[in-house]
Design goal:
single chain; alpha+beta; Immunoglobulin-like; five-stranded mixed sheet; disordered N terminus
Length: 298
């Protein structure tokens, strides 16, 4: 009866989970610790893999825990109780099972990890937008680059640079492939936007990390440095402002004409405080020792 009840519960749970998507399960169990509301296809792929990996781990865990408690209850020592179960050694089928099964589980996890990792790191031949990310102690500079397949090569056509009293706002279009090319002027930093569920280190010297993403939802997303880089590491924030492709083109045209970032944001309809970062704010310090490239605060 116990075995029958356990089987019924397992079948019911399997039927319940098979009718759900990763997003449904994630909402019920609060993402199993993984942040939700990713704004890129890459973030959603990683989120789905996390959810189903946790479900697989829980299935294995419940199976093992069930066997343990079954043995504890059925074969516990008591007067007149059952004898110890038959002790078997060199049981070839069982040994093959507990050797092969873990390898099958690892192979499946490795396959999906390799597929999703490849998709996340994939670079397109001709991205729609290219942004050069320059990190320095303790702020950011974003250089909007021309298409890398032009005859003259990629060139900077507009720049936004942060300062101790100005949070840099990086404006990007939704639904477009955005390439981020990173390098640092001093120490190792890390470019991280939590809603993208992705971060990548920014190295000094000749090392340039490159990745691509497509933001599918308009909005303002705070960005941070995720690498301990010095005294004001925790204040090294920026904001990504995702707008429609039409507004992005108008913004870039305003920047090319010589307008500052707040002025260019005003040109595409942002007013008041929305002309500046809304998700994070400058810190108040009169003793900041930071190197600021020319044009800071634009």
């Amino acid at each position: 009866m116990r075995a029958l009840g356990l089987s019924a519960v397992a079948v019911a749970a399997l039927a319940f989970l098979s009718g759900c998507g990763a997003d449904d399960v994630g909402k019920v169990f609060d993402g199993f610790g993984w942040p939700q509301q990713g704004v890129t296809p890459q973030a959603n792929q990683m989120y789905e893999m996390w959810i189903w990996s946790v479900i697989a781990a829980l299935a294995v865990g419940f199976f093992v825990w069930g066997l343990i408690f079954w043995c504890v209850i059925v074969y516990r020592k008591r007067a007149g109780g059952p004898e110890l179960p038959t002790q078997t050694r060199f049981n070839l089928p069982i040994e093959v099972l507990y050797t092969v099964l873990p390898f099958l589980i690892i192979a499946v996890l490795f396959y999906y990890t390799a597929v999703i990792q490849t998709n996340v790191n994939k670079l397109s031949a001709h991205p729609d937008v290219t942004v050069e990310v320059v990190a320095f102690k303790w702020n950011w500079q974003f250089n909007y680059r021309s298409a890398p397949d032009t005859d003259a090569g990629a060139q900077t056509v507009a720049t936004t640079t942060g300062a101790s009293d100005y949070i840099p706002v990086l404006v990007v279009p939704t639904g477009k492939t955005i390439r981020f090319e990173e390098h640092s002027q001093d120490v190792i930093h890390s470019f991280w936007v939590p809603e993208m569920l992705f971060k990548r280190d920014v190295f000094p010297g000749n090392v340039r990390n490159v990745f691509e993403a497509t933001i599918v939802q308009e909005g303002s997303y705070v960005g941070r440095c995720a690498e301990l880089c010095g005294q004001y590491h925790s204040m090294m924030n920026f904001e990504v402002r995702a707008v429609s492709p039409e507004r992005y083109e108008a913004f870039l045209a305003a920047k090319k004409s010589g307008k500052s970032t707040p002025q260019a944001l005003a040109a595409i309809g942002f007013t008041g405080k929305d002309m500046y970062a809304t998700k994070t704010f400058p810190f108040d310090s009169k003793t900041v020792d930071q190197r600021v490239p020319s044009g800071a605060g634009n």
